[in-house]
Write a structure and sequence with these properties.
The chain is mostly beta strands. The chain has one helix at residues 63-78; strands at 28-29, 46-49, 58-62, 134-140, 156-159, 165-168, 172-176, 182-187, 206-211, 217-221, 226-230, 236-241, 256-257, 266-271, 277-281, 286-290, 295-300, 305-307, 310-312, 318-319, 328-333, 339-343, 348-353, 356-362, 377-378, 387-392, 398-402, 407-412, 415-420, 431-432, 441-446, 452-456, 461-466. It is globular, with a radius of gyration of 29 Å. The model is unreliable at 1-21 (pLDDT under 50).
């Protein structure tokens, strides 16, 4: 009987039952007939695949898998392994082991030593990882992505206690695990507000993220005007507000039970000590709380004032319920239970503590977006330009993503200094903190080890810095 055979010649010749083959191990074969005991489905065929073809003993494979294996074998046999840069690691189909990710640069090769520069020296798809005082890229890049998928509108970042890093993109949520491997966890490139699981869920411009004690991720979803919950199994649900971007459902401001409450572009959130969530309600210019019973309450801010010239927002300090903000956009909790708030259009950093709002750093003034507004120095005299992200490090240092000045600032000891980047200089460069360049850094968080995770919005990247 004629049969399909993979041996000396694939798919040709006859194979007959061989006798005396009791010395074959499980899965080994000399003829196709030795694979007859394999379970098959309709249309499947097991064959004896030998590599190289002159081998006496092969292994049983499905015919479709054998075709793939043979193609790889031929490609490797007929291919080349070139070492253009002379670093001892080549590139090509015939190379054994890891191949060089850049065969034109001898400083780049698998197993190489990572140094603080713009190169992926060890070919692990991460730049400058693990190096102190050095800014590196972990994910993204519009033209030259570090990983295999493109990120288009990175907006928020949160580091979980277990070391996972959560990132919000245009309509998706990503997770970067402790090994630096990114995956899409929920959402897709299609906008919407569907409460489904994983890639079937729909978001529309999620921004701020907060990781709960059980590992669930809470999402401030600006364009859908609500707060969502992403469970550890990928299931998405509405946590508070009405998820809608329709005109009639935007511009609303209402307290009450989770399903009755209304937000207008909730943009960031963080946990209080009692397990409640503090939410920055951007266009309502208020800070709200979602209690553990999922009731929405007002914590700070009076919102805008109606005038003959329209709604006007201020910067008044004082009792929290009488304080004024102008597009607050980020919030972070300090070790003593206070909250630091980035007041973007007031160009300053505010402090919510003991039921009162004060100015922590900056001059709280409207500025011309076309003009410079930068100054390091004493906190009260420092200047920021559209600060969008705040985070508190384990040592109490407060970091600010100073979006309009294109750099990372820090507040400590009553002073404001530059932590990374060249303020006032827009661009992209990975390297030493003083030389690194950013383009509209938008969000920031600090891990337990004190390292900074930065959303470099204008460069479509997630950057990492170990101070």
């Amino acid at each position: 009987m004629k049969r399909l055979m993979l041996g000396l010649v694939l798919f040709s010749g006859f194979a007959f039952l061989a006798l005396g083959c009791s010395n074959l191990k499980e899965g080994e074969c000399k003829r196709d007939r030795h694979c007859d005991d394999k379970a098959t489905k309709l249309g499947e065929l097991w064959v004896c695949y030998k590599e190289p073809p002159e081998s006496e003993i092969g292994k049983c494979l499905l015919a479709k898998d054998a075709r793939v294996a043979l193609a790889k074998y031929k490609k490797k046999k007929d291919g080349k392994c070139d070492d253009g840069d002379g670093d001892g690691v080549g590139v090509g189909d015939a190379c054994e082991g890891p191949v060089d990710c850049n065969d034109k640069d001898k400083d780049v090769k698998p197993g190489g030593t990572e140094v603080c520069d713009t190169k992926d020296n060890d070919c692990d798809q991460v730049i400058n990882e693990g190096l102190k005082s050095c800014v590196g890229t972990v994910l993204g890049g519009k033209r030259d992505p570090i990983c295999h998928f493109m990120i288009t509108m990175t907006s928020g970042v949160a580091v979980a206690p277990n070391g996972d890093v959560w990132v919000s993109d245009q309509h998706q949520i990503y997770r970067i695990d402790a090994k630096g491997i990114p995956t899409r966890f929920a959402g897709s490139n299609k906008p919407g507000h569907e409460n489904k699981k994983g890639k079937f869920a729909r978001f529309d411009e999620p921004v701020g993220l907060a990781v709960g004690p059980d590992g669930s991720v809470y999402v401030a979803e600006c364009k859908n005007n609500c707060v969502r919950k992403l469970a550890t199994d990928g299931q998405v649900s509405t946590y508070a507000g009405l998820c809608s971007n329709e005109a009639d459902n935007a511009g609303l401001d209402k307290l009450g039970n989770w399903n009755e409450a209304r937000f207008w572009c909730p943009i960031d959130l963080t946990f209080d000590a009692d397990g409640s969530l503090l939410v920055v309600d951007r266009f309502n210019a208020k800070i709200k709380r979602i209690t553990k019973a999922r009731k929405v309450e007002l914590v700070a801010g009076v919102g805008g004032k109606d005038t003959d010239e329209g709604v006007v927002f201020g910067s008044a300090n004082g009792p929290a319920l009488k304080a004024e903000f102008d597009q607050p956009v980020s919030i972070a909790k300090t070790a003593d239970g206070a909250f630091v708030i980035a007041d973007m259009k007031n160009n300053c950093i505010r402090l919510l503590k003991g039921g009162k709002v004060s100015t922590l750093a900056g001059q709280c003034a409207k500025v011309d977006v076309e003009k410079e507004n930068f100054a390091d120095g004493k906190a009260a005299k420092a200047k920021f330009k559209m600060p969008n992200g705040v985070a508190v490090a384990p040592d109490g240092t407060i970091y600010v993503a100073d979006t309009g000045n294109h750099c990372i600032r820090k507040i400590g000891g009553g002073k404001v200094t530059t932590a990374a980047g060249r303020c006032l200089q827009q661009g992209y460069f990975d390297g030493p903190v003083k030389d690194a360049l950013f383009n509209q850094p938008l969000a920031i968080d600090v891990a337990k080890d004190g390292s900074l995770w930065i959303i470099d919005h204008g460069n479509y990247r997630v950057r990492h810095l170990i101070p």
